[in-house]
Amino acid sequence: MDRAKLFAGLRSALFGGKLTQGQVDGITAILDAWQASQMTDLRWLAYMLATAYHETAKTMQPIAEYGKGKGRKYGVKGRHGQVPYGRGYVQLTWDANYENADRELGLGGALLDNFDLALDQDLASKIMFIGMEEGWFTGAKLGDYFRGEKADWLNARRIINGMDRAKDIAAYGRKFYALLQEAGA
Q1: pLDDT averaged over the chain?
Q2: pLDDT for position 83
Q3: How does DSSP assign 46-100, residue by residue?
Q4: What is the pLDDT of residues 103-113, one digit of tens each?
Q5: What Rg value do the Cα atoms of the chain yield, rounded?
Q6: How many other CB atoms sit within 10 Å of the CB of residue 154?
Q7: Cβ contacts of 166 within 8 Å, gap of 6 or more
Q8: Which CATH architecture describes the domain 3-182?
């Protein structure tokens, strides 16, 4: 993949003509995680990038949810003495999701002791990649929407959060996919 070409395309098509160093670093971390993974369907990468683009408010950095869950059911201290508001590339929420990520990634309780570990780029990437591949968040997974000739960009939103902003994220995903293809990914 020609990353220079990809970043030039992203800069123009999705980031208003400029990328911050943080955006470059976040996209690079996601691309590196992709290359280290066993995943081969480029649409999966495009949809994960689109999800991160939306869920991080285009920062492409693992972030803490704006408002930190205030006014939401999960916005109070939970079983682990912390508020399980959204963190990371996918905005991991709820005690059960933190518990599942900790268990599935073999973290031995480290994430449960400190939910802010989900803000680490490497861990946020693992949560996004493995969680979206295996259906951790809602039961829906990437392979349900992108497999063979099937490409359901709209309903893929069900992997993370029902149909909230599904049309927007589908459009972002298609743009990321086209740019990845143009860059020879």
Answers
A1: 97
A2: 97
A3: HHHHHHHHHHTTT--S-EEPTTTTTTSTTSS--TTSS----EETTTB-SHHHHHH
A4: 999 999 999 99
A5: 16
A6: 15
A7: 154, 155, 157
A8: Orthogonal Bundle (1.10)
Helices 95-104 & 121-134 angle (0-180, nearest 10): 100
3-state percent breakdown (helix, strand, coil) of the chain, nearest 5: 55, 5, 40
Classify strands 63-64 and 146-147 as parallel, antiparallel or unpaired: unpaired
Residue 173's closest CA among 27, 62, 48, 12?
Answer: 48
Residue 76 amino acid letter: V
C-beta of residue 138 within 8 angstroms of C-beta of residue 160: yes
Residue for token pair 């916005």: 75
Cα 102 from chain centre: 17
Which amino acid belongs to residue 182? E
pLDDT for the residue 19 = 98
pTM for the full model?
Answer: 0.96
